[in-house]
C-alpha cells in the first residue's frame, strides 16, 4: 500500500511495534506531521482489512489504537515506491477476558492474548509475509500460536494457522463472544 509521503520517517524498522501512544520511532515524538501520516497509514490498512473480511466497520484505526491497550505490528518494504516505502500489512493483538467453552461444555474464564486483526495487502498474499509478521509477534510476545485466541478467524487465516502452526481443531464458542474459537492442536 503506497502513500504520498515517506513512511520510513516514522516506521524505522521493517516491522514496527506500536502501542496506545502510536510512537514507532524517536523521530515521531513531537512531530505532528509524522503522527498524522502514521495515523493515515493505520486507518487505510484498517479499512483495507475490513474490506478483505467484508466487515461494515474497520476493527483497526489510529483512534481505536489510542483508546485500547493493543499492540500493532506493521510490516513495510522500506525501499519500494522510490524509497518512500510501502505498507505490506499488519497484525493486531491484545488481551481479552473470555468465557470459553471446553470440550465438556463447561464455561471457563480466561484472559489470553487474542489475535484481533490481521491483513496482508492483496498483491502480496501467499508470499510468506504473513508468516514473517506472525512469527515476529510470537517472539516479541513470548507466546506460542496454540496459546493464543483468535477473534472470528477468516477462512484464509484458518488455512494459514493450519499450514504454518498445525492448528486444526477448535472449540466453537457462544455466538457473539469476543473470540469465537481457540484452535487446539
Ligand atoms: N486463500 C486461502 N488460503 C490463503 C490465502 C487465500 N487467498 N492466502 C493465504 N492463505 C493461507 C494459506 O494457508 C497459504 O498457504 P498456501 O499458499 O500453501 O495455500 C498461507 O496462508 C500463506 O502464508 P503466508 O504467505 O505467510 O500468508 P499471507 O501473507 O497471505 O497472510 C493472511 C495471511 C493475513 C490471512 C492474508 O491472507 C490476508 O490478509 N487475508 C485477508 C484478510 C484476512 O482474512 N485476515 C484474517 C482476519 S481474521 C483475524 O484477524 C482474527
Describe the structure.
It is a single chain. The chain is of the alpha+beta class and 185 residues long. The protein has a single domain (7-149), classed as 3-Layer(aba) Sandwich (Aminopeptidase). The chain is built from four helices and nine strands. A five-stranded mixed β-sheet has the order 1-2-3-6-7, sandwiched between helices. Strand 6, helix 3 (129-141) and strand 7 (149-150) form a beta-alpha-beta unit. Residues 175-185 have low confidence and may be disordered. The chain binds acetyl coenzyme *A. Residues 49, 52-53, 115, 117-120, 125-131, 150-154, 156-157, 159-160, 163 line the site of acetyl coenzyme *A.
SSE layout and pairings?
Blueprint (H helix, E strand, L loop, with lengths): L14 E4 L13 H21 L9 H6 L3 E7 L8 E10 L2 E4 L5 E4 L2 E8 L8 H13 L7 E2 L4 H11 L3 E4 L8 E4 L1
Parallel strand pairs: 6-7
Antiparallel strand pairs: 1-2, 2-3, 3-6, 4-5, 8-9
Amino acid at each position: 500500500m503506497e502513500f504520498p509521503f515517506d513512511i520510513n520517517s516514522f516506521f524505522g524498522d521493517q516491522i514496527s511495534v506500536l502501542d496506545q501512544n502510536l510512537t514507532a520511532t524517536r523521530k515521531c515524538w513531537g512531530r505532528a506531521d509524522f503522527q498524522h501520516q502514521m495515523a493515515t497509514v493505520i486507518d487505510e490498512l484498517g479499512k483495507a482489512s475490513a474490506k478483505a473480511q467484508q466487515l461494515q466497520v474497520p476493527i483497526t484505526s489510529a483512534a481505536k489504537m489510542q483508546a485500547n491497550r493493543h499492540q500493532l505490528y506493521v510490516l513495510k518494504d522500506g525501499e519500494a515506491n522510490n524509497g518512500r516505502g510501502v505498507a505490506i500489512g499488519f497484525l493486531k493483538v491484545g488481551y481479552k477476558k473470555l468465557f470459553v467453552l471446553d470440550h465438556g461444555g463447561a464455561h471457563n474464564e480466561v484472559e489470553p492474548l487474542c489475535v484481533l486483526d490481521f491483513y496482508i495487502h492483496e498483491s502480496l498474499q501467499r508470499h510468506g509475509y504473513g508468516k514473517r509478521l506472525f512469527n515476529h509477534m510470537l517472539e516479541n510476545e513470548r507466546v506460542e500460536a496454540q496459546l493464543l485466541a483468535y477473534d472470528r478467524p477468516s477462512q484464509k487465516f484458518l488455512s494459514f494457522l493450519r499450514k504454518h502452526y498445525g492448528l486444526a481443531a477448535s472449540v466453537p464458542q457462544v455466538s457473539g463472544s469476543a473470540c469465537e474459537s481457540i484452535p487446539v492442536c
